[in-house]
């Protein structure tokens, strides 16, 4: 974000009456405002960006002007208090917070293939969308005329394309393809639920004025592309991660013959993706999101590789115990099963936070002095808006340790949807400087009367040591979640398998409105009861079909 002091027009002075103002050098009253990313004058981006990126940005911004008016008109027609609450809070189902909280459960309960598939889809979706965001530097819909509703910090990022749309569509398509074996009407119900999820996320971005139509369309296209690549190549990716022995040959000795192909390619590709992420014109947090998700993929990939080499995977027979109480034959079994499930989640989350706390403390203490030493020997790469270690002695506390990861943005503002006033005034001013005519008063100041001011607002600072710190921390989170914690649960006897493979070894066929069950394993008694209850309730087994397809895929 960019902090500026601009002359205050009459209509804005009443809105900003609660903010302090000061006279400029010419005696004119000025008000400090904060510009969102992408809202500086056009010539700033034309001069800073390569011609092809600047051309795309001009096209997106030109479309954004009339799209902002369309979204504002839509808001005036459809906005209701209950819809405000619904779309603002359902938007969390497409955020990093939601997915980073849910994904470890796939590894804790014995479905690692699904877990890795979702991690890869989300990671490459986030990386691709943030790569485009920082390349194009397009703003979000202008406020005014729209009213922006948000409870997080996503408004601090560029607008084009929508990462929410990318994530929601790619995840929905991935789940849909897991359920293709459903009967037609069961697949129709599943499709309807997934479509409603996509609608809630994608249309919610328009309703909350967080994105334009172009942003959402581009995000959906990226999500579809990411899903198609993942679905087509997932089996090959899994085979690559499980390479054993030199150049994929069978392992002859447990440790001396380990292949270094997977870790070498994974680490080099991960660092290359991070290094090649474009530098934006404004200070935008997209880069940090990209670091985190690329690092998580590195961690889960290395975890899969190490597990296959060390025999800590299902194929080697390491995971065999079931979560206690998995039969669910009586109340005691139910309490036991969910008690151990809760215990695994609590221990897993605690281990992840402990890892982050310890490693961030150590790395932020060690890396800056190390950088300063080697800076005398080689020229270290620098990134815009990131302070090199030669210019600071220690990382300030506000940029150091926090209980929650920086990627997981737990809202710290007032609860409930809100409209960001400083963003409204800033975006409106830039729209006037660009010559947008929409019937409101123009800002009277020329561009050269604008002066930088950072004394009244907390400007987020970035440090070069935090980049490698994030890589190590989030790669460790991926590795711990996908290999170390499941192995620990197996050793403790808590079981990684939940009994799902026994339960879901059910072949359910639907003919003439009736269902026939074929049972396998020790869970047949439980599933006969559950199947009968589902059939009596009118489900005709479609829900069981969904579970069968998803869980056996893991």
UniProtKB/TrEMBL annotation:
GO MF entry, a single one: peroxidase activity
Region described as Disordered: 14-33
Record-linked Pfam families: PAP2 (PF01569)
Sorted UniProt keywords: Endoplasmic reticulum, Hydrolase, Membrane, Oxidoreductase, Peroxidase, Transmembrane, Transmembrane helix
Presence of the UniProt keyword Membrane in the record: yes
SUPFAM superfamilies assigned to the protein according to its UniProt record, in alphabetical order: Acid phosphatase/Vanadium-dependent haloperoxidase (SSF48317)
Biased composition (Low complexity): 14-25
Residue span, Phosphatidic acid phosphatase type 2/haloperoxidase domain: 116-231
Membrane topology term: Multi-pass membrane protein
Residue intervals passing through the bilayer: 86-109, 171-204, 334-358
GO CC field: endoplasmic reticulum membrane
Record keyword Membrane present: yes
Subcellular location: Endoplasmic reticulum membrane
Family: Belongs to the type 2 lipid phosphate phosphatase family.
Name the UniProt record assigns to this protein: Acid phosphatase/Vanadium-dependent haloperoxidase
Species this protein is from: Dacryopinax primogenitus (strain DJM 731) (Brown rot fungus)
